[in-house]
Fold these 3 entries.
Entry 1:
Amino acid sequence: MGVRKNARNLTSTEKAAFVSAVKRLKAQTTGRNYDWFVTTHMNYFAGVNGIRYAHQSPSFLPWHRRYLIEFERALQVYDPAVTVPYWDWTVDRSTTGAPFTADLMGGNGSGGNGPIITGPFAGATNWRINVGSTTSTSLRRAMGSNTLPSATQVSSVLGVSTYDASPWNSSATSGMRNRMEGWTTPNLHNAVHVWVGGHMGQQDSPNDPVFWLHHCNIDRLWSQWQTRWGFDTGHYLPAAGTTNVVDLNETLQPWPGVTPASVLEHGSVYTYA
């Protein structure tokens, strides 16, 4: 069982190990390499055969939980001790502090939405964008165009006891999931993507490795919600019979046999520090 830590608390050795594993996965040329994960997110960002898996639906949280697990396992092929750290953006809110330091994620882009110029992912030689929504081959950021979510906003979302509600999409006005995802107020997940900008503001957002730290924090918040309201299957909605939605026991593509019900409990796989 792995322990996912706050990025600000990583030792220099842990930072180096995480960066090394990410770059080795990127350098892999076959199989489930880093670009496979980018392509998968792009393919499932919108609906597949009319069903939304990754976004704007109840499966937003379980889909990304499984996605994180698969990514973490891919890194652990290179270093079994590596886990994905999380970025608590309610605390670390600057463009130069954790996790945007030169020894982890690097800093901002140049000239407003330009290539990042510091850190291990700066420039196409260090980190080439091979698949994406644009032709840019260097990782871009444009941090600070909006405000990061606050601890008060997070608390209000975690206080919503119902997981999701009809019409089960981005227009749902009640339920925790749509507030967590950010299509209604308060805006958590979406606001962070916009704040980082650049590639993080596009469908190919996993091209920016900070994607994983952000979604790790979203998963941590969902885990906190589950601790408060319940990890049982009654705390995922809808249960069954809903058109164009992944119900409790339906498959989370592209992972055969994986359902929302199968990922609700995560304690045997990882915990949060």
Note: Residues 37 and 206 are 7 Å apart (CA to CA).
Entry 2:
Amino acid sequence: MTLAPPRPTAPSSTPSARFPWAGLIAIAVATFLSISGEMLPTGLLPEMSADLGVTESSIGLLVSVFAFTVVLTSTGLTHLTRRLPRHLIVVGLIVVLAISAGLTAIAPTYELVLASRVLGGLAHGMFWAIGGAYAGHLVPRDQVGRALAVAMSGGTLAFVLGVPLGTALGQALGWREAFGILAGLMALGAVFVYKFLPPVGRGTAHESTSEPVTDAVPTLFDDTAPPAGAAVRRRRLPKPSVLGVVLSCVITAVFMIGHYSFFTYITPYLVRSTGVPERGLAGWLFAFGVAGAVGLGMVGWFLGARPRVSIPIGVAVVGLAVTGMLLFEGMLVPSLVAFVLWGVTFGALPPLFQTRMLQVAPERMRDLASAFYTTGFNAGIGGGALIGALVLDGAGLDSLPVLYIVVAAVVLVAVLASDRLLARRSARPAA
């Protein structure tokens, strides 16, 4: 499924046009709020479990339901609404997310909480299917990578900052109050997006620009892509191909399964296995968040220009960090060091995976590739939370980091093998 290319109301057809910071920051704010709503239950498992009278694994499944709703509905709903104004849809979706969070806050039973999460998943999937493409349509083609990095940075920051902040609010005020505050922030976010996100329509001038398009994806803070380096980077990248997109999406999904099989249940693990006092839990998660922000910054400054090297190193470091948490159970200081190292690396890996996917995606199918990536990413989140729940109820809490380590090892091998395969295909002479 592909979407007709939108058009900014005041497009500029040259790469030297003013970069649309306000619009891209508006998308970043929306992605931060959307992902924060998706992942908030992971930091409030004990509180929600006790209040709703269900197991912690049942609360973890709220993440799975949300993510699987995205997987099952995002493509179809996006296609059905393809003729509606994109700007109006984005604002409306944020309003629906606010309603979903508000309903979660007041739902008296687990079943009604589950229903409110399904509503949120419907809006979240459409938003992510539209949001990435929306960012790309605001700029000329040679600035797509940079625009996407800015817009999607809100999602990465939500993974690493939204959970600790939500946990702190939930512990201080109550989990229902935390969802209520989030609903209010989402409503304000909808107003912000309405004001600062430029409307788009069909037939953008950016799509018809005659400027050459490089395969290089600029890093987050680069104002221009150096012409001399672009040719070198282009030669080092594999040829764009459908196979490259498929491999990137599958690898991302598998990594997310490993991550969320453990991270969805990180709250009980830190308290029961690591020995973190409950009142200190928000501080640990905040440290993880700050570490993730550092990792995101590293992507912007230098890692994003070298995803082929950065990704396998990052996956290996994740495996080592989680191994450290397992080995240092009950020892707070070394466990905290390992936890922060994990946070730095996870803050970097999602944008690196997405950058690599863009590098190998044929230009004609970037929208479709982004939709596949969103599906794979959320399938990994939902699948991880579900598998983690099964492992938690079966083998126990301490089996979760072991599962993550195994998955990280599999992903590392898959990354190295796929890069080699794509490099060999690129080296073959054209028929």
Note: The longest strand covers residues 6-8.
Entry 3:
Amino acid sequence: MTKPQALNIEIYGADVVCASCVNAPSSRDTYEWLSAAINRKFPANEITFTYIDIEQPIENESQQDIANRIAEDEFFYPLVMINEEMIGEGYIQLKPVYAALEKYGYVSEKE
């Protein structure tokens, strides 16, 4: 069986909850919940989780571009990217995130 590729999951957000996302968890809560859920479902993974606060200075140019697009209301936050592919925005759900991971070759050890 081939080993799934290493992935970088970026969660973009801010301390203030998105105005369109009433009753949704904060961006940081989403980051913590998502990383815990993925590590539980895919424990033998090579996934790096990165939280990007869109209200703080960002040195990485592509991350700054995404943050700018959120600021211009092109995207809602929290925004989840896997290897530069947008997986979800606003109210994040596990099913599309898991489906994206499976597309990259990850298999749940619980199946």
Note: The longest helix spans residues 27-41.
